[in-house]
Request: fold
Amino acid sequence: MYPDERVVRLVTSEFLAIRVHVRDPEDLYARMSERLNVHWTPTVLILDGDGVERHRVEGFLPVDDFLAHLKLGLAKSAFQRGAFDEAERWFREVVDKHPQSEPAPEAQYWAGVARYKAKGDANALAETARAFTTRYTDSAWAKKASVWRAA
Amino acid sequence: MAESGIPWRRDAEQALDEAKQSGKRALVDFTAAPM
Reply:
């Protein structure tokens, strides 16, 4: 995942990158895994500026899915601090740039929520529900969005 | 350390504290990959 130039660019531009190796000396892995509740490798955590975990990836992923998860984490981090326009941009980037990735349906759902939060416009939810009738139709997120069809 | 082009911090505890103090997002990679 990390030799990929797109991953390098995203990680370098958006995060302070910290690596903890199972063989790090002085029990660093044991202390950090207990502190952050990690029980497997590889595990990647995205922490916001307050040190709160906003997203977790456990297990290896192909590059496209990994990039999508990193962006989902950025979106969640922005959402939690109330930066809804920024959150929507990241959510939509997951859908637009990584449409076949595992997090894409979740990102499509939350993009609608972020727009609703930013604009106070219920049409954002109805449009999201409509989008799920043609894309990611069998996903759990499509079921969750279905309640908005009449919004 | 800049393997793979990413400037990984290995002093994880200090780096986490610095990230919190500066309000910067952190990515923490727990790995068993060959060093």
In short: Chain B touches chain A through 27 residues (CB under 8 Å).
